[in-house]
Amino acid sequence: MSRTRVVVADDSTLVRDGISRLLSDEGFDVVGQVGTLDDLMRVTNDTAPDLVVTDIRMPPAFRDEGIEAARRIRADGPKHTKVLVLSQFLEAEFALRLIEDGERGIGYLLKDRIVDIAEFVDAARRVARGGSVIDPSIVTTLLTRQRRSGPLDQLSERELQVLGLMAEGRSNAGIADRVFVTEKTVEGYVGTIFGKLGLATAADDHRRVLAVLKYLQRS
Amino acid sequence: MSRGAAALIALVALAAGLASEHVRQVWLQPLWVPVIDLGVGWLLVGCGLVAAVARPNQPAGRRLVLAGSLWIVGAPRQWFGGTGRTDDFIQLDAVSFTLVGWSDAVIAFIALAYAGRLPARRRDLMIVGALVAAYSFQTFVRFLNVFPDLFGVDVLNPDGSGTVLAIADVLRTSLLGVAGLLIAQRWLATRGSSRRLLGPVLLAGAASCLVPLYGIWFPLSQLGFIDPVPESLAVPSFWLTNAVRVLVPIAMLFGILRQRVSRLAMTDVIADVGRTPSAVELEAALARALGDPSLRVLSWDATQSAFLDVDGRPTPLPPDGDPQTVTPISGQGRPIAALVHDRSLAEDPTLVAVGVAVTRLVIDNENLNRELRQQLDEVTASRARIVDAGDAERRRIERDLHDGVQQRLLALALSLRRAGVAITDDPAAAEALGRGADEALGVVSDVRDLAQGIHPAALTEAGLATALQALASRSPVPVELDIGLDGRASPGASATAYFVASEALANVVKHASAAIVQLRASSPDGEIRVTVEDDGRGGADPFGPGLRGLSDRVSAIGGRLTVEERAGGGTVVTAVIPAR
Fold first, then answer.
1. Is B444–A114 a contact, with Cβ atoms under 8 angstroms apart?
2. pLDDT one-digit tens code per residue, B259-300
3. Do B441 and A145 touch (CB under 8 A)?
4. Who has greater pLDDT, A109 or A206?
5. Per residue in B5-24, is it b (16+ CB within 10 Å) or e — as a string?
6. Residues of A near B (CB-CB distance < 8 A)?
7. For residues A202 and A191, what is the distance between their CA atoms, to the nearest angstrom?
């Protein structure tokens, strides 16, 4: 199997180098390192990587360049390029926007997660394969809020745990690993949760994340 | 002249009048003669005294007193023949006779010089000189006539003395007529409020000088030029000439009364101007009260070094010799304003002084208001700049933290972690490195919280709407959001709106015991409107330090903050902020 080709974008050279080395060590092929939105777009179009790992805030405006990059790549970048956005500060709004934006896998993680090497590399691989990864902290925030306003009361603790993992973008297999049950049992949980919340069953993991996040985001 | 002095003079005039009647034996005439005789004299003195008290700066009143005194001492009597006195009073009576007519000359002088000390025109001065000469001549001739032995020589042939007296009479009466014409000419030359103010006295003066021309008939008939006056005409002519003599004092009295009315009108001005103290109002009110539609209130503008009219246009002052004159108003050695008005208003300096005082108050008030407004504008602008600078500084610090410290700490944590993972043969060292990585990550989190408090990253990265959503999602009290922002707010306005929402939410969490909070944000007409409404216990203190600080912050960039009790319990905090 060929190595996953990745472009790393961060205006901090230290962080960029750190992420690049980490990914290289873990078997990724880092084909480009850039520090601005413009360079990211150019290098992505030139190298057509499998994955782009980008900081959200970069020159020129230091606002939401990472989100913008994801939008542009999915709109008219290389077809197979997936994007993992890192940010010092997470917005549920951004997560939803990123997921809504396209059919393909997307990642949105707190930047601190890079230090948890195994988790980070796992997330990068899942995104590269077309999965969606949403930072657990966003899911926690949304869950907390929804629990306060009621509709999640009908879910058991275990079901809530499964809902959160779904929202993070885990597949049934991934969830099964986490909660130490069989994939079959997870499927059962998912069916129950969707039934209780009145959600239509999603066609794939990506749509499932979208559906769950949208449900959690509504106020 | 003081009132006391005037009263004293009045008493003297009353006594002197009676004494004079006695000396001149006017009692022997039909009753109406002494009545009119005394009436004219006392009226002249009385009106003169009133005028002298009312307008102490004007000599006209004192001159009228003089005219009345001369009348009392030497009223004309020739039409009714000599006195035929033979007793002790004969010499006094004779002196009285020599002074006959002088009061007419003084009245002519009053009219020629009215509203001033001396006549302004050269020809008026000349006729005054000629009148003095003619009347002096007449007095001299009469003196010789009644005291023929004075110089020990019989200067005048007793038979011819009547002729000389008649000639002197013709001379002075004609000159009085000329003076009357000049007074009439002076009246014709006046315009506008000058005519209004001086007109009555000038017309009365002209009449009282011209009507006595009629009396020239007597000396002319004595000289044999015309037939003697029929008795049927003599009496009406007496009435007529005496009637016109009282015109000038009555006209002056009228002027004083009208001045009283003007002063009353001036109190209206003060009342009006007190209600709405503006230069425009003041000018209209002063023009009304002073009866001078041409009156202008000019204010001094130091930056342009020019007088400005009430509409703010630079206006030159009238040149010397213009019918309008300038009353300057200054304070602390600098010009403040000027009243441009008709010269004749100077007739009543008290009234003008009141006008000046009111003008000074109004202009001072306007100047102070303007300065205050300017200073307030400056302070408002500088306050907004300070807040903007503070915001910019917070953004800069947040960005420095984000781009510098946080990234380096993160890189450090990553390095430590990788080092720890790389060490497989020394579990203790690997664990220490792992702890180091966790520690560094903890610091990253702390720094992030710090930066978040200084300036929310969401505001920078995603704008106000998203930042408010994030704020709501973090709130322990459920928040209902209603956000319709057009995203065109300046960074300062966005930061302030966020600050309001975040502080108000924090207050709700801390104090309100609310079940739910509504956070609304909209951007109508170039403004941002943020409302935080809770259903808690209410009772927020708008002057407490928290809300006070919010209010200061909002008003610093030209917005306003309101704190209201919500119907049914709770608090509504609303900020309206210019989006700029």
1. no
2. 778 778 778 777 877 777 788 888 888 888 777 888 888 988
3. no
4. A109
5. ebeebbeebbebbeebbebb
6. 10-12, 14-15, 17-19, 21-22, 25, 56-57, 62-64, 87-89, 91-94, 111-112, 114-117, 141-142, 145, 148-149, 219
7. 10
**DSSP states along B112-150:** HTTTSSS-SSHHHHHHHHHHHHHHHHHHHHHHHHH-TTT
Virtual torsion, Cα B237, B243, B244, B247, nearest 10 deg: 180
Interface touch A117/B417, C-beta < 8 Å: yes
Interface test with B, best of A13, A20, A88, A96 (most B CBs within 10 A): A88
Of A22, A91, A148, the CB nearest to B462: A91
Q: For residue B335, what is the enclosing H or E element?
A: strand B334-342
CB contact under 8 A, B407 and A114: no
Question: Cα angle vertex B512, ends B509, B514, to 5°?
Answer: 80
Per-residue confidence (pLDDT) for residue B446, from 0 to 100: 92
Contact criterion met (CB below 8 Å) for B242 and B103:
no
Can you tell me the ipTM of this complex?
0.88
User: Which of A89, A117, A148 best probes binding to B when mutated, by most B CB atoms within 10 angstroms?
Assistant: A89
Average pLDDT for A156-173:
88
Burial of A183 by CB count in 10 Å (0-12 exposed, 13-18 middle, 19+ buried)?
A: middle
pLDDT tens-digit profile of A61-102? Answer: 888 889 899 999 988 889 899 999 998 888 777 888 888 877
* Rounded to 5°, angle at Cα B178 from B176 and B179: 60
CA angle in degrees (0–180, nearest 5) for B181-B182-B183: 90
Kindly report, residue by residue over B463-488, the tens digit of the pLDDT. Answer: 898 889 888 878 888 888 899 988 78
**Contact flag A12-B411 (C-beta cutoff 8 Å):** yes
DSSP state of B314: B
Contact B461 A64 (CB under 8 A): yes
| Cα end-to-end span (Å), chain A | 45
Contact A114 B461 (CB under 8 A): no
CB atoms within 10 A of CB B448: 21
- Contact yes or no for B410 and A56 at CB 8 A: no
Pairing of strands B571-578, A29-34: unpaired
Q: Can you tell me the distance from the alpha carbon of B209 to that of A117, in angstroms, rounded to the nearest whole number?
A: 124
Cβ within 8 Å of residue B316, ≥6 positions away? B307
Number of H-type helices and E-type strands within chain B: 18, 9
Q: Taking chain B (580 residues) in consecutive chunks of 10 residues, what is each chunk's mean pLDDT? A: 85 84 76 82 88 83 88 67 60 77 86 80 87 86 72 55 78 88 87 77 87 80 77 74 84 82 78 77 83 85 86 86 82 86 72 84 85 91 89 89 90 93 91 94 91 84 85 85 86 90 91 90 91 90 83 89 90 91
Find all residues with CB under 8 Å of B361, minimum gap 6, and list them: B273, B277
Quote the CA–CA distance of B571 and B180 in Å, as a whole number.
87
Measure A76 CA to nearest chain B CA, in Å.
23
For tokens 């997470």, what's the residue?
Answer: A90
Q: Cα torsion for B16, B17, B18, B21, to the nearest 10°? A: 120
What pLDDT does residue A53 have? Answer: 96
Determine the Cα–Cα distance for residues B483 and B476; give it in Å rounded to an integer: 19
How many Cα atoms within 13 Å fall on the side-chain side of residue B173?
19
Region for residue B333 given its phi and psi (left: phi exceeds 0; alpha: psi -120 to 50; beta: otherwise): left
What pLDDT does residue B71 have?
85
